[in-house]
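Researcher: I'd like a candidate sequence for this fold, 322 residues long. If you have to choose between options at a position, lean toward the conservative one.
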């Protein structure tokens, strides 16, 4: 960088009024005493009051116009004298303004250089801070917590040293680890009471909030899960009872069907037996109302014999066992 020189410091700037001759207006140009008297005469018109029934509007209008003309003449004179007196001072003011603008251009240029240099310093410092943060973040319980380490604006200040920044980062890491362990312990106790577990990974994005806020969220989540699981349990119990009842009814129906089917099979069997095994030995018609039958049944078929005996008795049929 080139040598910086304050060449402006060699210029002596001070106001010396003895070197300036103020403008003096001769009495022949303006007689201020006469001006005061004339003004007082004009101000007396402020006491004019309109009287009812008097028509003096024309005289008031004429007086107003006369004063207005005099006022305009006085104002024009003021402007002429002002322009004459300011002619030299304007040139002086323009010279001052020109130099001030040129000096301001240099000041702004140097200020911009300051900003650029400070930004370079901040950028280099940020690289060092990021490197330091990455190294210290290895002590975090989980890597996902690193994004919650904040960079306070004070770290950019020249007066903020790296050892201070390191202490701040370590303090944030300790707080994050403590919060994580505390939340994990709370979740462990809650998850022992519910089937649908609350995972800490599901709330890790909330770690920029206060711990009380996170605990409140977990408590509300636990209640939602508990209510849902209780509802599901009741529905499951109702469904189980319905299923048991339906199974019982189904079994009863199947049982009845089986019994009925067994009876049908038994009747078919008996009918078939009559058609095949038990054939009539002889048939004798004794009169118009009775038929005499002779039936031969194997000795081992006692069941059929009992059935026929029961049938004969029920129908009042006479039979003889030979």
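Model: Candidate sequence:
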């Amino acid at each position: 960088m080139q040598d910086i020189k304050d060449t402006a410091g060699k210029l002596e700037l001070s106001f010396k009024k003895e070197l300036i001759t103020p403008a003096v207006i001769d009495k022949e140009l303006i007689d201020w005493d006469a001006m005061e008297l004339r003004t007082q005469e004009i101000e007396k018109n402020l006491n004019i009051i309109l009287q009812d029934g008097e028509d003096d509007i024309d005289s008031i209008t004429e007086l107003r116009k006369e004063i207005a003309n005099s006022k305009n003449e006085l104002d024009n004179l003021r402007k002429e004298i002002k322009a004459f007196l300011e002619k030299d001072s304007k040139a002086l003011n323009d010279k001052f303004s020109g130099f001030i603008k040129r000096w301001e251009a240099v000041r702004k240029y140097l200020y911009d250089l300051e900003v650029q240099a400070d930004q370079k310093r901040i950028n280099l410092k940020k690289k060092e801070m990021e490197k330091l943060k990455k190294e210290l973040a290895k002590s975090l319980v989980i890597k996902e917590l690193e994004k919650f380490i904040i960079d306070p604006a004070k770290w950019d200040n020249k007066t903020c040293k790296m050892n201070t920044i390191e202490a701040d980062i370590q303090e944030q890491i300790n707080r994050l680890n403590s919060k994580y362990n505390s939340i994990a312990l709370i979740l462990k106790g809650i998850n022992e009471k519910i089937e649908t577990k609350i995972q800490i990974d599901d709330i890790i994005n909330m770690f920029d909030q206060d711990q009380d806020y996170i605990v409140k969220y977990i408590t509300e989540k636990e209640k939602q899960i508990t209510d849902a699981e209780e509802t599901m349990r009741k529905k499951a119990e109702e469904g189980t009872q319905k299923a048991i009842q339906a199974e019982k009814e189904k079994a009863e129906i199947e049982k009845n069907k089986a019994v009925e089917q067994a009876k049908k099979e038994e009747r078919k069997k008996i009918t078939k037996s009559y058609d095949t095994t038990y054939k009539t030995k002889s048939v004798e018609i004794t009169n118009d109302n009775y038929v005499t039958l002779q039936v031969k049944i194997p000795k081992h078929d006692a069941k059929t014999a009992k059935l026929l005996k029961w049938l004969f008795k029920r129908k009042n049929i006479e039979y003889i066992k030979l």
